[in-house]
Amino acid sequence: TSWQSPHISDRPEEVAEVFREQMAALVEGAPDAFILETFTNLSELEIALRTLKAMTSLPVIACVSSNDAG
User: Which residues are CB-neighbours of 53 under 8 A, at least 6 positions away?
Assistant: First the structure.
């Protein structure tokens, strides 16, 4: 089953909450760093990055993927 985020322009607070729930489990696992990858929506990546940086001071690598439309 793939996870699809809510439509971000409608409810950025809900998107942040979904990320927060998922990231909490990852932070608990005590990684050395985080990689946010294959985001095709820059606004969604910004929400994810802000949410993660509010939870941890660990390094984060963030990547954007473009689709055929650019």
Answer: 60
Angle at CA of residue 23, ends 17 and 25, nearest 5°: 120
Q: How many CB atoms lie within 10 A of CB 35?
A: 11
Mean pLDDT across the stretch 19-41? 94
Give me the pLDDT at residue 1, please: 36
How much is the average pLDDT of 14-30? 94
Q: State residue 68's pLDDT score.
A: 72
State the alpha helices, DSSP H only, in the chain: 12-28, 42-55
SS3 4: coil
3-state secondary structure 37-54: EEECCHHHHHHHHHHHHH
